[in-house]
């Protein structure tokens, strides 16, 4: 009997030891694989990012942000193609030299060129900062005519030489209409891949609410910028939420001042760019560059759960906005795709403001097409 007991105990011990031994072998194998992997230069392939108008203020602020991973993530290598006009060639080369001197590990290559074909070749992301600014004494149609010409040419180059899956962000004003022209003249690029920047306005709205409530800006979410990236845009705080110790609360209820929300808040966001120019004697380059990084990062890597951001995208008719217009909506992003947030309640005040901006965009579209003709 004693022999059977000993044998039984040994069998029990072996049955316990076997999983432990197997687990130990698995862990040892994993350590060996990781050790070998560390000696191999195995990582993500670089993404080619085009920045037009790269010698300008926004471009100068933007390209180091891209090269540091602020747009595409801290482990994503990049090759940056910088384009500008011939008159800015020396300045553009200076920007290239500075990028090299910054010794940024994620930067795997940099091209500085005045040739639009070279700049667009292989571009997987295009940030269109270059455009013709409105100068004193210029008529609106004159500015539109110049930008239509520029964006028609850029569209042709992207159509023929960019990567088929290229994602485009238009920053240069009039951003919505410039994006519309790109969409029209680069038909092989999916229209969902062409967007314009209203994230700067979105961020400004977040900043205004955080200052009003004296809370961290990271605790405020779900403002909306509706419409055009112009003074007709409608910054909407109706659906905004603030994270508090007691949980999520309505920003509107916390502010408890509809007069401020419908008046000063809207005006401040609409006129913030002009206020910065008045103060700096230059445009808001740093915040625009930061917003461009935010826009692309959320588009490609996804928006935070439970929140949305504002992007200028091609309308599908949502919220009564004419289909085909490039209009700013609240969107969520997942797997590199954006979706317009549906079902938000629109009050009478908001409806009026949204329609005013849509009307302005229709007028811009008509003007742009007249310039083409």
TrEMBL record:
GO terms of biological process kind: malate metabolic process; tricarboxylic acid cycle
Catalyzed chemical reaction(s): (S)-malate + NAD(+) = oxaloacetate + NADH + H(+)
Location of the Lactate/malate dehydrogenase N-terminal domain: 49-194
Top-level taxon of origin: Eukaryota
Domain spans labelled Lactate/malate dehydrogenase C-terminal: 198-366
Keywords: NAD, Oxidoreductase, Tricarboxylic acid cycle
Family: Belongs to the LDH/MDH superfamily. MDH type 2 family.
Name of this chain's protein: Malate dehydrogenase
């Amino acid at each position: 009997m004693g022999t059977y007991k000993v044998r039984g105990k040994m069998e029990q011990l072996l049955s316990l030891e076997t999983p432990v031994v197997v687990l130990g072998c698995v862990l040892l194998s994993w350590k060996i694989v990781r050790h070998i992997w560390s000696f191999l230069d195995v990582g993500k392939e670089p993404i080619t990012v085009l920045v037009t108008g790269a010698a300008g203020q926004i471009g100068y602020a933007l390209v180091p942000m891209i090269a540091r991973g602020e747009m595409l993530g801290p482990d994503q290598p990049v090759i940056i193609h910088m384009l500008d006009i011939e008159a800015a060639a020396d300045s553009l080369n200076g920007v290239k030299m500075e990028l090299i001197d910054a010794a940024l590990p994620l930067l795997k290559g940099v091209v500085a060129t005045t040739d639009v074909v070279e700049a667009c070749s292989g571009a997987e992301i295009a940030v269109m900062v270059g455009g013709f600014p409105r100068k004193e004494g210029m008529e609106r149609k004159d500015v539109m005519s110049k930008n239509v010409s520029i964006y028609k040419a850029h569209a042709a180059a992207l159509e023929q030489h960019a990567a088929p899956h290229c994602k485009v962000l238009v920053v240069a004003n009039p951003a919505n209409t410039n994006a519309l022209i790109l969409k029209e003249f680069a038909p092989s690029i999916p229209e969902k891949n062409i967007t314009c920047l209203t994230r700067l306005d979105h961020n400004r709205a977040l900043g205004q609410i955080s200052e009003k409530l004296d809370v961290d800006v990271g605790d405020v979410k779900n403002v909306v910028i509706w419409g055009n990236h112009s003074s007709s845009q409608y910054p909407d705080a109706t659906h905004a939420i603030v994270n508090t110790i007691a949980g999520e609360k309505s920003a509107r209820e916390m502010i408890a001042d509809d007069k401020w929300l419908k008046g000063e808040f809207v005006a401040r966001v609409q006129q913030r760019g002009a206020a910065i120019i008045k103060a700096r004697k230059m445009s808001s380059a740093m915040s625009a560059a930061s917003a461009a990084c935010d826009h692309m990062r959320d588009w490609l890597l996804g928006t935070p759960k439970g929140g949305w951001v504002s992007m200028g995208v091609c309308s599908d008719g949502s919220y009564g906005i004419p289909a085909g217009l490039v209009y700013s909506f609240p969107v969520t992003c997942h797997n590199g795709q954006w979706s317009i947030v549906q079902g938000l309640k629109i009050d009478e005040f908001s409806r009026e403001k949204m329609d005013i901006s849509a009307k302005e965009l229709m007028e811009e579209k008509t003007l742009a097409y007249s310039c083409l003709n």
